[in-house]
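TL;DR need structure tokens for one chain.
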Amino acid sequence: MDENRANLLWDQKCAVCHGVDGTPKDSVFPRPKKLRGFGIKMGFLFGGDKMREGIFKTIRDGKNQTMPSFKEELSEEEIRALVKRIERF
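>> reply
TL;DR here they are.
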């Protein structure tokens, strides 16, 4: 999947809660996880594939009542492209 498609998916499915650049707006409640900055970069650096798999599963399965599951809307390839997109923040 190309990077442009991943960017489009981010804009359509994720940005409304997580922000265009991975920083949620203050007006979103409950406040989603910030997906950019030192902490997330260190998670990818030291967590590697474990971090990627965790994010993949969260996108696929959802989390608690706040993060919806996208397994019915997105293919595995699309979810993996979103994980790579998050890693680039």
